[in-house]
Design a protein that fits this description.
By secondary structure, this protein is an alpha/beta fold. Helix content is about 30%, strand content about 20%. The protein has an eleven-stranded mixed sheet, sandwiched between helices. The chain has a six-stranded mixed sheet with strand order 17-18-22-19-20-21, with helices on both faces. The chain has a five-stranded mixed sheet with strand order 1-5-4-3-2. Helix 15 links the parallel strand 20 and strand 21. Helix 4 packs parallel to helix 6, helix 5 crosses helix 11 and helix 14 packs across helix 15. The longest helix is centred in the middle third of the chain and has 16 residues. It starts with 8 loop residues before the first helix and ends in a 5-residue tail after the last helix.
Protein backbone atom coordinates (compact mmCIF):
# COMPACT_ATOMS: atom_id res chain seq x y z
CA UNK A 1 0.00 0.00 0.00
CA UNK A 2 1.22 3.49 -0.87
CA UNK A 3 2.54 5.33 2.18
CA UNK A 4 2.91 2.28 4.43
CA UNK A 5 6.26 0.98 3.19
CA UNK A 6 9.19 3.10 2.09
CA UNK A 7 10.65 1.91 -1.26
CA UNK A 8 14.39 1.96 -1.83
CA UNK A 9 14.16 4.68 -4.46
CA UNK A 10 17.85 4.68 -5.46
CA UNK A 11 17.65 0.93 -6.11
CA UNK A 12 14.38 1.32 -8.02
CA UNK A 13 15.99 4.07 -10.12
CA UNK A 14 18.95 1.80 -10.86
CA UNK A 15 16.60 -0.89 -12.15
CA UNK A 16 14.71 1.68 -14.18
CA UNK A 17 17.94 2.69 -15.95
CA UNK A 18 18.98 -0.90 -16.60
CA UNK A 19 19.24 -1.67 -20.35
CA UNK A 20 16.92 -4.44 -21.52
CA UNK A 21 19.88 -6.59 -22.62
CA UNK A 22 21.81 -6.39 -19.34
CA UNK A 23 21.37 -7.71 -15.81
CA UNK A 24 23.93 -5.34 -14.34
CA UNK A 25 24.09 -1.57 -14.95
CA UNK A 26 26.99 0.04 -16.73
CA UNK A 27 26.94 3.11 -14.46
CA UNK A 28 29.45 2.89 -11.59
CA UNK A 29 27.11 4.34 -8.92
CA UNK A 30 24.29 2.06 -9.99
CA UNK A 31 26.67 -0.92 -9.83
CA UNK A 32 27.49 -0.02 -6.23
CA UNK A 33 23.81 0.17 -5.39
CA UNK A 34 23.25 -3.22 -7.02
CA UNK A 35 25.93 -4.76 -4.81
CA UNK A 36 23.80 -3.95 -1.77
CA UNK A 37 20.58 -5.25 -3.31
CA UNK A 38 19.03 -8.45 -1.92
CA UNK A 39 19.04 -11.54 -4.15
CA UNK A 40 16.04 -13.58 -5.20
CA UNK A 41 17.62 -16.66 -3.64
CA UNK A 42 17.55 -14.88 -0.23
CA UNK A 43 13.75 -15.07 -0.19
CA UNK A 44 13.31 -18.83 -0.36
CA UNK A 45 14.37 -22.03 1.26
CA UNK A 46 15.24 -24.64 -1.37
CA UNK A 47 12.37 -26.85 -0.17
CA UNK A 48 9.83 -24.11 -0.88
CA UNK A 49 10.58 -23.94 -4.61
CA UNK A 50 8.62 -26.42 -6.72
CA UNK A 51 10.17 -25.27 -10.02
CA UNK A 52 11.88 -22.20 -11.46
CA UNK A 53 12.67 -20.69 -14.82
CA UNK A 54 15.48 -18.18 -14.93
CA UNK A 55 18.27 -17.35 -12.51
CA UNK A 56 17.74 -17.12 -8.76
CA UNK A 57 20.89 -15.07 -8.18
CA UNK A 58 19.43 -11.88 -9.64
CA UNK A 59 18.99 -8.80 -7.44
CA UNK A 60 15.63 -7.17 -6.78
CA UNK A 61 14.39 -3.93 -5.28
CA UNK A 62 11.40 -5.06 -3.18
CA UNK A 63 8.25 -7.19 -3.17
CA UNK A 64 4.78 -6.41 -4.53
CA UNK A 65 1.38 -8.09 -4.41
CA UNK A 66 -0.60 -5.54 -6.42
CA UNK A 67 0.39 -5.26 -10.08
CA UNK A 68 -0.65 -1.60 -10.05
CA UNK A 69 1.97 -0.90 -7.37
CA UNK A 70 4.86 -2.73 -9.05
CA UNK A 71 8.03 -0.66 -9.35
CA UNK A 72 11.19 -1.41 -11.33
CA UNK A 73 13.08 -4.37 -9.90
CA UNK A 74 10.17 -5.73 -7.86
CA UNK A 75 9.33 -9.38 -7.25
CA UNK A 76 5.62 -9.81 -7.98
CA UNK A 77 3.71 -12.40 -5.96
CA UNK A 78 0.69 -13.55 -7.97
CA UNK A 79 -1.62 -14.42 -5.07
CA UNK A 80 -4.77 -16.49 -5.55
CA UNK A 81 -7.94 -14.71 -4.43
CA UNK A 82 -11.57 -15.47 -3.76
CA UNK A 83 -12.67 -13.10 -6.52
CA UNK A 84 -9.55 -12.36 -8.58
CA UNK A 85 -6.49 -14.49 -9.32
CA UNK A 86 -3.20 -12.59 -9.25
CA UNK A 87 -2.01 -14.73 -12.15
CA UNK A 88 -4.17 -12.60 -14.44
CA UNK A 89 -1.88 -9.62 -13.81
CA UNK A 90 1.54 -11.17 -14.42
CA UNK A 91 1.97 -9.45 -17.79
CA UNK A 92 1.04 -6.09 -16.30
CA UNK A 93 3.60 -6.59 -13.52
CA UNK A 94 6.32 -7.41 -16.05
CA UNK A 95 5.44 -4.35 -18.15
CA UNK A 96 5.79 -2.22 -15.02
CA UNK A 97 9.30 -3.49 -14.38
CA UNK A 98 9.04 -6.68 -12.31
CA UNK A 99 12.17 -8.85 -12.51
CA UNK A 100 10.65 -11.99 -11.00
CA UNK A 101 7.24 -13.63 -10.65
CA UNK A 102 6.27 -15.92 -7.78
CA UNK A 103 3.27 -18.04 -8.67
CA UNK A 104 1.61 -21.37 -7.99
CA UNK A 105 1.62 -22.08 -11.73
CA UNK A 106 4.20 -20.87 -14.24
CA UNK A 107 2.39 -19.58 -17.36
CA UNK A 108 2.73 -21.48 -20.62
CA UNK A 109 4.05 -18.33 -22.31
CA UNK A 110 6.93 -16.79 -20.39
CA UNK A 111 9.22 -13.80 -20.82
CA UNK A 112 12.99 -14.15 -20.94
CA UNK A 113 13.29 -10.85 -19.10
CA UNK A 114 12.13 -12.25 -15.76
CA UNK A 115 12.62 -15.20 -13.46
CA UNK A 116 9.63 -17.39 -12.60
CA UNK A 117 9.45 -19.18 -9.26
CA UNK A 118 6.74 -21.80 -8.76
CA UNK A 119 5.68 -22.49 -5.17
CA UNK A 120 3.03 -24.72 -3.63
CA UNK A 121 1.37 -21.89 -1.67
CA UNK A 122 1.99 -18.31 -2.82
CA UNK A 123 0.53 -16.74 0.34
CA UNK A 124 2.73 -18.87 2.59
CA UNK A 125 5.77 -18.04 0.46
CA UNK A 126 4.94 -14.32 0.64
CA UNK A 127 4.76 -14.44 4.44
CA UNK A 128 8.12 -16.19 4.72
CA UNK A 129 9.76 -14.00 2.08
CA UNK A 130 8.54 -10.78 3.74
CA UNK A 131 9.79 -11.97 7.10
CA UNK A 132 13.23 -12.69 5.61
CA UNK A 133 13.38 -9.46 3.60
CA UNK A 134 12.74 -7.33 6.70
CA UNK A 135 15.07 -9.46 8.87
CA UNK A 136 12.49 -11.05 11.16
CA UNK A 137 11.24 -7.90 12.91
CA UNK A 138 8.77 -9.89 15.04
CA UNK A 139 11.70 -11.57 16.81
CA UNK A 140 13.10 -8.21 17.90
CA UNK A 141 9.84 -7.18 19.59
CA UNK A 142 7.68 -8.36 22.45
CA UNK A 143 4.66 -8.82 20.22
CA UNK A 144 1.17 -9.20 21.68
CA UNK A 145 -1.55 -10.54 19.36
CA UNK A 146 -5.21 -10.02 20.24
CA UNK A 147 -7.89 -12.13 18.55
CA UNK A 148 -11.63 -12.67 19.06
CA UNK A 149 -14.90 -11.49 17.58
CA UNK A 150 -15.38 -8.43 19.77
CA UNK A 151 -13.06 -6.28 21.85
CA UNK A 152 -9.85 -6.61 19.83
CA UNK A 153 -9.43 -2.88 19.25
CA UNK A 154 -10.17 -1.88 22.85
CA UNK A 155 -7.93 -4.59 24.32
CA UNK A 156 -5.05 -3.75 21.96
CA UNK A 157 -5.38 -0.05 22.78
CA UNK A 158 -5.47 -0.78 26.52
CA UNK A 159 -2.40 -3.02 26.37
CA UNK A 160 -0.50 -0.39 24.44
CA UNK A 161 -1.51 2.31 26.94
CA UNK A 162 -0.57 0.21 29.97
CA UNK A 163 2.84 -0.74 28.55
CA UNK A 164 3.78 2.70 27.22
CA UNK A 165 5.52 5.38 29.24
CA UNK A 166 7.24 8.70 28.59
CA UNK A 167 10.43 6.75 27.88
CA UNK A 168 8.87 3.78 26.12
CA UNK A 169 6.75 4.01 22.99
CA UNK A 170 4.77 0.93 21.96
CA UNK A 171 3.80 0.11 18.38
CA UNK A 172 0.20 -0.70 17.44
CA UNK A 173 -1.34 -2.33 14.38
CA UNK A 174 -5.12 -2.31 14.52
CA UNK A 175 -8.46 -1.47 13.03
CA UNK A 176 -8.30 2.29 13.59
CA UNK A 177 -4.66 3.15 12.81
CA UNK A 178 -1.10 1.87 12.70
CA UNK A 179 1.31 3.47 15.18
CA UNK A 180 4.76 2.74 13.76
CA UNK A 181 6.73 4.46 16.50
CA UNK A 182 7.99 7.38 14.44
CA UNK A 183 4.66 8.05 12.71
CA UNK A 184 0.98 7.12 12.77
CA UNK A 185 -0.86 6.20 9.56
CA UNK A 186 -4.52 5.29 8.92
CA UNK A 187 -5.42 1.63 8.97
CA UNK A 188 -6.62 -0.04 5.79
CA UNK A 189 -7.18 -3.50 7.28
CA UNK A 190 -7.34 -4.93 10.81
CA UNK A 191 -4.52 -7.39 10.09
CA UNK A 192 -2.41 -6.19 7.14
CA UNK A 193 -1.15 -8.44 4.36
CA UNK A 194 2.10 -10.20 5.26
CA UNK A 195 4.24 -7.83 3.16
CA UNK A 196 2.86 -4.72 4.86
CA UNK A 197 2.79 -6.43 8.25
CA UNK A 198 6.50 -7.23 8.34
CA UNK A 199 7.39 -3.93 6.71
CA UNK A 200 5.53 -2.03 9.42
CA UNK A 201 6.89 -4.22 12.23
CA UNK A 202 10.35 -3.38 10.87
CA UNK A 203 9.51 0.33 11.09
CA UNK A 204 8.33 -0.15 14.68
CA UNK A 205 11.58 -1.98 15.51
CA UNK A 206 13.74 0.62 13.77
CA UNK A 207 11.96 3.42 15.65
CA UNK A 208 13.34 1.97 18.88
CA UNK A 209 10.18 0.28 20.16
CA UNK A 210 10.63 -2.90 22.18
CA UNK A 211 6.95 -3.88 22.28
CA UNK A 212 4.11 -3.88 19.78
CA UNK A 213 0.46 -4.87 19.96
CA UNK A 214 -1.58 -6.03 17.01
CA UNK A 215 -5.11 -7.16 16.32
CA UNK A 216 -5.22 -10.56 14.67
CA UNK A 217 -8.38 -11.22 12.66
CA UNK A 218 -9.61 -14.67 11.67
CA UNK A 219 -9.23 -13.63 8.02
CA UNK A 220 -5.61 -12.70 8.74
CA UNK A 221 -4.96 -16.11 10.27
CA UNK A 222 -6.74 -18.05 7.54
CA UNK A 223 -5.05 -16.13 4.73
CA UNK A 224 -1.63 -16.70 6.30
CA UNK A 225 -0.85 -13.04 6.87
CA UNK A 226 0.62 -13.93 10.28
CA UNK A 227 2.29 -17.17 9.20
CA UNK A 228 5.49 -17.70 11.17
CA UNK A 229 5.06 -14.58 13.31
CA UNK A 230 6.52 -15.05 16.80
CA UNK A 231 4.06 -13.73 19.38
CA UNK A 232 5.14 -13.25 22.95
CA UNK A 233 1.52 -13.33 24.14
CA UNK A 234 -1.67 -14.31 22.31
CA UNK A 235 -4.96 -13.03 23.75
CA UNK A 236 -8.43 -14.50 23.13
CA UNK A 237 -11.39 -12.23 23.91
CA UNK A 238 -14.55 -14.10 22.82
CA UNK A 239 -16.32 -15.80 19.94
CA UNK A 240 -19.75 -14.92 18.63
CA UNK A 241 -21.72 -15.45 15.44
CA UNK A 242 -19.87 -13.28 12.96
CA UNK A 243 -18.00 -13.93 9.72
CA UNK A 244 -19.90 -17.19 9.26
CA UNK A 245 -20.29 -16.20 5.61
CA UNK A 246 -16.53 -16.77 5.46
CA UNK A 247 -15.93 -19.58 7.96
CA UNK A 248 -19.17 -21.52 7.54
CA UNK A 249 -19.62 -22.73 11.12
CA UNK A 250 -18.72 -21.63 14.63
CA UNK A 251 -16.51 -24.71 14.98
CA UNK A 252 -14.57 -23.70 11.89
CA UNK A 253 -14.38 -20.12 13.15
CA UNK A 254 -12.98 -21.27 16.50
CA UNK A 255 -10.60 -23.64 14.74
CA UNK A 256 -9.17 -20.71 12.81
CA UNK A 257 -8.70 -18.64 15.97
CA UNK A 258 -7.08 -21.63 17.69
CA UNK A 259 -4.30 -21.68 15.10
CA UNK A 260 -2.85 -18.58 16.76
CA UNK A 261 -2.38 -20.61 19.96
CA UNK A 262 -1.58 -24.18 18.86
CA UNK A 263 1.12 -23.70 16.25
CA UNK A 264 -1.23 -23.59 13.28
CA UNK A 265 0.50 -20.42 12.06
CA UNK A 266 3.90 -22.09 12.11
CA UNK A 267 4.87 -20.81 15.56
CA UNK A 268 3.42 -20.87 19.07
CA UNK A 269 3.18 -17.94 21.48
CA UNK A 270 5.26 -18.05 24.63
CA UNK A 271 2.15 -17.28 26.71
CA UNK A 272 -1.63 -17.06 26.25
CA UNK A 273 -4.39 -15.06 27.95
CA UNK A 274 -7.83 -16.63 27.49
CA UNK A 275 -11.31 -15.49 28.51
CA UNK A 276 -12.93 -18.30 30.49
CA UNK A 277 -16.23 -16.43 30.82
CA UNK A 278 -16.77 -17.34 27.16
CA UNK A 279 -17.62 -21.00 26.40
CA UNK A 280 -15.35 -20.86 23.36
CA UNK A 281 -12.51 -19.81 25.67
CA UNK A 282 -13.06 -22.94 27.75
CA UNK A 283 -12.87 -25.03 24.58
CA UNK A 284 -9.76 -23.18 23.46
CA UNK A 285 -7.99 -24.12 26.71
CA UNK A 286 -8.12 -27.75 25.61
CA UNK A 287 -6.41 -26.89 22.29
CA UNK A 288 -3.41 -25.01 23.72
CA UNK A 289 -0.19 -27.08 23.93
CA UNK A 290 0.90 -27.86 27.52
CA UNK A 291 4.24 -26.09 27.06
CA UNK A 292 2.55 -22.69 26.71
CA UNK A 293 1.97 -20.68 29.87
CA UNK A 294 -1.75 -19.89 30.10
CA UNK A 295 -3.35 -17.11 32.14
CA UNK A 296 -7.14 -17.22 32.32
CA UNK A 297 -9.22 -14.11 32.88
CA UNK A 298 -12.87 -13.31 33.54
CA UNK A 299 -15.34 -12.97 36.38
CA UNK A 300 -15.55 -16.73 36.87
CA UNK A 301 -14.29 -17.83 40.32
CA UNK A 302 -11.57 -20.00 38.76
CA UNK A 303 -10.15 -17.23 36.53
CA UNK A 304 -6.59 -16.37 37.48
CA UNK A 305 -7.05 -12.69 36.59
CA UNK A 306 -10.56 -11.76 37.60
CA UNK A 307 -12.89 -8.94 38.58
CA UNK A 308 -14.81 -9.06 41.84
CA UNK A 309 -17.40 -6.68 43.25
CA UNK A 310 -18.08 -5.00 39.89
CA UNK A 311 -19.80 -1.63 40.35
CA UNK A 312 -21.14 -0.16 37.07
CA UNK A 313 -21.90 3.53 36.79
CA UNK A 314 -22.86 6.06 34.15
CA UNK A 315 -19.41 7.71 34.21
CA UNK A 316 -17.36 4.55 34.47
CA UNK A 317 -16.92 1.19 36.19
CA UNK A 318 -15.21 0.16 39.39
CA UNK A 319 -14.17 -3.33 40.51
CA UNK A 320 -11.64 -5.27 42.52
CA UNK A 321 -8.85 -6.70 40.37
CA UNK A 322 -7.57 -10.04 41.66
CA UNK A 323 -4.56 -11.95 40.32
CA UNK A 324 -2.31 -14.68 41.79
CA UNK A 325 0.08 -12.20 43.39
CA UNK A 326 -2.37 -9.65 44.74
CA UNK A 327 -5.52 -7.55 44.51
CA UNK A 328 -6.32 -3.87 44.11
CA UNK A 329 -9.21 -1.51 43.43
CA UNK A 330 -9.69 -0.36 39.83
CA UNK A 331 -11.59 2.71 38.65
CA UNK A 332 -12.15 2.73 34.90
CA UNK A 333 -13.61 5.42 32.63
CA UNK A 334 -14.95 2.63 30.38
CA UNK A 335 -18.60 1.65 30.58
CA UNK A 336 -20.11 -1.81 30.77
CA UNK A 337 -19.39 -5.40 31.71
CA UNK A 338 -17.83 -6.13 28.33
CA UNK A 339 -15.26 -3.45 29.05
CA UNK A 340 -14.51 -5.13 32.37
CA UNK A 341 -13.67 -8.18 30.28
CA UNK A 342 -11.54 -6.04 27.95
CA UNK A 343 -9.67 -4.60 30.92
CA UNK A 344 -9.05 -8.06 32.36
CA UNK A 345 -7.71 -9.20 28.99
CA UNK A 346 -5.28 -6.28 28.93
CA UNK A 347 -4.16 -6.89 32.53
CA UNK A 348 -3.69 -10.61 31.84
CA UNK A 349 -1.58 -9.84 28.74
CA UNK A 350 0.64 -7.46 30.70
CA UNK A 351 0.97 -9.97 33.54
CA UNK A 352 1.98 -12.63 31.03
CA UNK A 353 4.76 -10.27 29.90
CA UNK A 354 6.01 -10.11 33.47
CA UNK A 355 4.74 -6.62 34.25
CA UNK A 356 3.79 -5.64 37.81
CA UNK A 357 0.08 -4.78 37.77
CA UNK A 358 0.48 -2.55 40.83
CA UNK A 359 2.81 -0.35 38.78
CA UNK A 360 0.94 -0.23 35.47
CA UNK A 361 -2.72 -0.29 36.61
CA UNK A 362 -2.70 3.40 37.75
CA UNK A 363 -1.96 4.38 34.13
CA UNK A 364 -5.58 3.49 33.37
CA UNK A 365 -6.64 6.86 34.81
CA UNK A 366 -5.20 8.62 31.77
CA UNK A 367 -6.63 6.24 29.18
CA UNK A 368 -8.37 8.45 26.57
CA UNK A 369 -10.73 5.76 25.30
CA UNK A 370 -10.93 4.30 21.82
CA UNK A 371 -12.30 6.14 18.80
CA UNK A 372 -15.77 4.88 17.92
CA UNK A 373 -16.02 2.58 20.91
CA UNK A 374 -18.66 4.00 23.25
CA UNK A 375 -17.37 7.40 22.18
CA UNK A 376 -19.29 10.23 23.82
CA UNK A 377 -20.46 13.14 21.63
CA UNK A 378 -20.65 16.31 23.72
CA UNK A 379 -22.10 19.40 22.03
CA UNK A 380 -24.03 20.85 24.96
CA UNK A 381 -27.12 18.68 24.38
CA UNK A 382 -29.16 17.65 27.47
CA UNK A 383 -28.98 13.94 26.65
CA UNK A 384 -26.22 11.46 25.97
CA UNK A 385 -25.05 10.54 22.48
CA UNK A 386 -22.73 7.56 22.08
CA UNK A 387 -21.13 6.25 18.87
CA UNK A 388 -20.16 2.60 19.02
CA UNK A 389 -18.79 -0.04 16.66
CA UNK A 390 -21.22 -2.75 17.86
CA UNK A 391 -22.18 -4.60 14.67
CA UNK A 392 -23.01 -8.11 15.86
CA UNK A 393 -25.91 -9.46 17.88
CA UNK A 394 -23.68 -10.18 20.87
CA UNK A 395 -22.03 -6.74 20.79
CA UNK A 396 -25.39 -4.98 20.47
CA UNK A 397 -26.92 -7.05 23.25
CA UNK A 398 -24.00 -6.35 25.60
CA UNK A 399 -23.93 -2.64 24.80
CA UNK A 400 -27.65 -1.99 24.97
CA UNK A 401 -28.34 -4.12 28.05
CA UNK A 402 -25.64 -2.22 29.92
CA UNK A 403 -26.92 1.20 28.79
CA UNK A 404 -30.49 0.19 29.58
CA UNK A 405 -29.49 -0.45 33.20
CA UNK A 406 -27.81 2.95 33.72
CA UNK A 407 -29.94 5.28 31.54
CA UNK A 408 -32.57 7.21 33.53
CA UNK A 409 -34.58 8.10 30.42
CA UNK A 410 -35.21 6.30 27.14
CA UNK A 411 -32.74 4.34 25.06
CA UNK A 412 -32.84 5.40 21.38
CA UNK A 413 -30.85 3.36 18.87
CA UNK A 414 -29.70 3.88 15.27
CA UNK A 415 -28.22 0.76 13.66
CA UNK A 416 -27.98 -1.27 10.47
CA UNK A 417 -26.62 -4.47 8.96
CA UNK A 418 -23.80 -4.65 6.43
CA UNK A 419 -24.40 -5.83 2.87
CA UNK A 420 -22.77 -8.89 1.28
CA UNK A 421 -22.26 -10.41 4.71
CA UNK A 422 -23.84 -13.16 6.82
CA UNK A 423 -27.61 -12.75 6.37
CA UNK A 424 -28.49 -15.01 9.29
CA UNK A 425 -27.32 -12.48 11.87
CA UNK A 426 -29.62 -9.69 10.64
CA UNK A 427 -32.83 -10.80 12.36
CA UNK A 428 -30.81 -11.57 15.49
CA UNK A 429 -29.44 -8.03 15.54
CA UNK A 430 -32.90 -6.57 15.05
CA UNK A 431 -34.24 -8.74 17.87
CA UNK A 432 -31.43 -7.63 20.20
CA UNK A 433 -32.20 -3.97 19.53
CA UNK A 434 -35.93 -4.58 19.92
CA UNK A 435 -35.38 -6.16 23.31
CA UNK A 436 -33.62 -3.15 24.87
CA UNK A 437 -34.42 -0.01 22.86
CA UNK A 438 -37.44 2.21 23.52
CA UNK A 439 -37.25 3.49 19.94
CA UNK A 440 -34.97 2.42 17.11
CA UNK A 441 -34.18 3.42 13.53
CA UNK A 442 -32.81 0.76 11.18
CA UNK A 443 -30.75 2.25 8.36
CA UNK A 444 -27.88 1.76 5.93
CA UNK A 445 -24.59 0.40 7.26
CA UNK A 446 -22.18 -0.25 4.38
CA UNK A 447 -24.75 -1.93 2.08
CA UNK A 448 -21.98 -2.56 -0.46
CA UNK A 449 -23.44 -4.28 -3.55
CA UNK A 450 -26.57 -5.60 -1.85
CA UNK A 451 -29.98 -3.99 -2.20
CA UNK A 452 -30.94 -2.19 1.00
CA UNK A 453 -34.48 -3.52 0.60
CA UNK A 454 -33.24 -7.10 0.96
CA UNK A 455 -31.18 -6.21 4.01
CA UNK A 456 -34.24 -4.59 5.61
CA UNK A 457 -36.39 -7.61 4.72
CA UNK A 458 -33.97 -9.91 6.56
CA UNK A 459 -33.97 -7.62 9.59
CA UNK A 460 -37.77 -7.43 9.72
CA UNK A 461 -38.03 -11.16 10.37
CA UNK A 462 -36.49 -10.54 13.79
CA UNK A 463 -38.81 -7.64 14.74
CA UNK A 464 -41.50 -8.43 17.33
CA UNK A 465 -42.94 -4.95 17.95
CA UNK A 466 -43.01 -3.17 14.60
CA UNK A 467 -44.08 0.17 16.06
CA UNK A 468 -40.81 0.62 17.95
CA UNK A 469 -38.55 0.15 14.90
CA UNK A 470 -38.61 2.49 11.90
CA UNK A 471 -36.74 1.71 8.66
CA UNK A 472 -35.01 4.75 7.13
CA UNK A 473 -32.72 4.31 4.12
CA UNK A 474 -30.67 7.49 4.59
CA UNK A 475 -28.33 7.14 7.58
CA UNK A 476 -28.04 10.90 8.16
CA UNK A 477 -31.81 11.20 8.31
CA UNK A 478 -32.05 8.27 10.72
CA UNK A 479 -29.53 9.93 13.05
CA UNK A 480 -31.42 13.21 12.76
CA UNK A 481 -34.73 11.54 13.67
CA UNK A 482 -33.19 9.95 16.75
CA UNK A 483 -31.72 13.29 17.86
CA UNK A 484 -35.10 15.00 17.29
CA UNK A 485 -36.73 12.40 19.51
CA UNK A 486 -34.22 12.66 22.37
CA UNK A 487 -35.02 14.48 25.58
CA UNK A 488 -33.16 15.18 28.81
CA UNK A 489 -32.04 11.93 30.46
CA UNK A 490 -32.27 9.91 27.25
CA UNK A 491 -29.38 8.12 25.59
CA UNK A 492 -28.92 7.98 21.81
CA UNK A 493 -26.72 5.14 20.57
CA UNK A 494 -25.45 5.26 16.98
CA UNK A 495 -24.19 1.74 16.43
CA UNK A 496 -22.39 -0.23 13.75
CA UNK A 497 -19.73 1.99 12.18
CA UNK A 498 -17.87 3.48 15.12
CA UNK A 499 -14.60 5.05 13.96
CA UNK A 500 -15.30 4.54 10.24
CA UNK A 501 -15.27 7.65 8.08
CA UNK A 502 -16.97 6.20 5.01
CA UNK A 503 -19.93 4.28 3.63
CA UNK A 504 -19.49 1.44 1.13
CA UNK A 505 -22.30 1.72 -1.42
CA UNK A 506 -22.30 -0.12 -4.76
CA UNK A 507 -18.54 -0.22 -5.31
CA UNK A 508 -18.27 3.39 -4.18
CA UNK A 509 -16.68 4.78 -1.02
CA UNK A 510 -18.70 7.74 0.24
CA UNK A 511 -17.36 9.95 3.07
CA UNK A 512 -19.49 9.42 6.18
CA UNK A 513 -18.61 9.72 9.86
CA UNK A 514 -21.32 9.06 12.46
CA UNK A 515 -19.53 11.29 14.96
CA UNK A 516 -19.23 14.24 12.60
CA UNK A 517 -22.82 13.86 11.39
CA UNK A 518 -24.11 13.77 14.97
CA UNK A 519 -22.13 16.88 15.94
CA UNK A 520 -23.29 18.80 12.87
CA UNK A 521 -26.94 17.84 13.36
CA UNK A 522 -26.89 18.78 17.03
CA UNK A 523 -25.37 22.13 16.08
CA UNK A 524 -27.82 22.77 13.25
CA UNK A 525 -30.84 21.93 15.36
CA UNK A 526 -29.51 24.09 18.22
CA UNK A 527 -30.89 21.60 20.69
CA UNK A 528 -31.47 23.03 24.13
CA UNK A 529 -32.81 21.57 27.41
CA UNK A 530 -36.60 21.55 27.46
Amino acid sequence: MIGYLNPNYPLVAAFRALPATRRRPADRVARQIFKMAPKLSDLFDDKEIVASKGGLDRPFSSLAIDSRRVMHGNVFFALPGRRVDGGQFIDEAINRGAVAIVTERIPAATSTRVTYVQVADARASLARAAQRLFKFPDRSLELIGVTGTNGKTTVASLVRHLLASSQERVGLLGTIHYDLGARVVPSYRTTPEALDLHGMLAQIRDAGCRQAVMEVSSHGIDQQRVLGVQFEVAVFTNLTQDHLDYHGTLDSYLGTKARLFNGGIGSVPRAAAINVDDPAGRRLLELVPPAIRVLTFGQAPDAQVRAENVRPGFKGTAFTLVWPEGRMEIGSPLLGGFNVSNLLAAFAACLALGRDLRVIAPRLRSFPGVAGRMERIEEGQPFNVLVDYAHTEDALRNTLSMLRSITPGRLLVVFGCGGNRDRSKRPLMAAAVGQFADRAWATADNPRNEALGRIFADMKTGVKEAGRLVFVEDRSRAIGLALDEAREGDCVVIAGKGHETFQEIADTIVPFDDRQVARELIGLKKLKPL
